[in-house]
Amino acid sequence: MSTQSQCQRFRIGYALAPKKGQSLIQPSLLTKASERGIDLIPIDPIKPLVEQGPFDCIVHKLYGPDWTRQLQQFSSQNPNVPIIDSPDSIERLHNRISMLEVVTQLKLHFDNEKFGVPNQVVVSEMKSLTSIEDLKLTFPVIAKPLVADGSVKSHQMYLIFDSQGLESMTAPFVLQEFVNHGGFIFKVYVAGMNVKCVKRKSLPDISEEKLKSLKGFLPFSRISNLIDNDKKVHDDGKKNSQGDEVDLESVEMPSQSFLCELARGMREALGLNLFNFDVMRDARDSNRYLIIDVNYFPGYAKMPGYESIMTDFFLQVLHKSAVGVTE
């Protein structure tokens, strides 16, 4: 169904939820893509996919059995048209345990950097929960929903400081060790071979002394209280490491070669082209990096210059497909 030979242009169909479409498909992206021979065509998910097109590639972020069947039917009739990405591969990222298992299985070696994931465990039932020590974790810990499907509920996370806070949770959930990381994280966006890293503020570090005064749990939406309360306590004019604002400008980025190789390994292991992963630098070891989250088809429009990055990715997919067809 390729149309390149007919009009020397590529047609990429996109199937996105309205909010996602408004974020990604901005006039600046449409212009950049068009200048490079790509027309971005919206797909109507209500109409049969096989009746739409023609397309040289499909990108999507829709879920559900009906949409999966539509993609399978389209692919069977158009085997040379790439679909970015496979629903089966995307499904792996909907579970907070399976999404990080791929990281622990990577066989990558670096001269200086080390990588891994925080210690974590699934709590399926509260009655099976004995003590934090039995889980081989120490407070504080982070409680995250097991399911990561982009819903509001899947983003409800808590920082837990003691046993009383842990007993307030509702299973199932994932407990993940909290690692001091300087109050910032790196968000690494992957679009095929294109890798872009940006810095973002994160949870503040928690000293052992500070932990003694923290009780119960805090929802992530109220984590800022840690900083605000700390500043109120230290109102004598002295700076406090737990309450200082993070100066992102002074934060050193991980090496691009490290991030690109890590992204390549994850891309191949996951079988995905469009995703991002959150990385934090262990405050105890500046060469140790921990991957804490992986998301499918993130908000690329938040990246500076995302239009060029996405257009480059589209062309990579299209040219690879064209070579495959020729061969």
TrEMBL record:
GO terms for cellular component: cytoplasm. It comes from the Eukaryota. It is an enzyme of class 2 (transferase). Its cofactor is Mg(2+). GO terms for molecular function: ATP binding; inositol-1,3,4-trisphosphate 5-kinase activity; inositol-1,3,4-trisphosphate 6-kinase activity; inositol-3,4,5,6-tetrakisphosphate 1-kinase activity; inositol-3,4,6-trisphosphate 1-kinase activity; magnesium ion binding. Mg(2+) 1 binds at D278, D293. ATP binds at residues 96, 144, 176-187, 202. Binds 2 magnesium ions per subunit. InterPro entries: ATP-grasp, Inositol_tetrakis-P_1-kinase, InsP(3)kin_ATP-grasp, ITPK1_N. Keywords: ATP-binding, Kinase, Magnesium, Metal-binding, Nucleotide-binding, Transferase. Mg(2+) 2 binds at D293, N295. It catalyses: 1D-myo-inositol 3,4,5,6-tetrakisphosphate + ATP = 1D-myo-inositol 1,3,4,5,6-pentakisphosphate + ADP + H(+); 1D-myo-inositol 1,3,4-trisphosphate + ATP = 1D-myo-inositol 1,3,4,6-tetrakisphosphate + ADP + H(+); 1D-myo-inositol 3,4,6-trisphosphate + ATP = 1D-myo-inositol 1,3,4,6-tetrakisphosphate + ADP + H(+); 1D-myo-inositol 1,3,4-trisphosphate + ATP = 1D-myo-inositol 1,3,4,5-tetrakisphosphate + ADP + H(+). Residues 107-323 form the ATP-grasp domain. GO terms for biological process: inositol trisphosphate metabolic process. Coiled coil: none annotated. The keyword Protein biosynthesis does not apply. Its EC number is 2.7.1.134. 1D-myo-inositol 1,3,4-trisphosphate binds at K20, K61, H155, K187, N295, G299. Belongs to the ITPK1 family. Kinase that can phosphorylate various inositol polyphosphate such as Ins(3,4,5,6)P4 or Ins(1,3,4)P3. PANTHER family: INOSITOL-TETRAKISPHOSPHATE 1-KINASE, INOSITOL-TETRAKISPHOSPHATE 1-KINASE 2. Monomer. This is Inositol-tetrakisphosphate 1-kinase. It comes from Citrus x changshan-huyou.
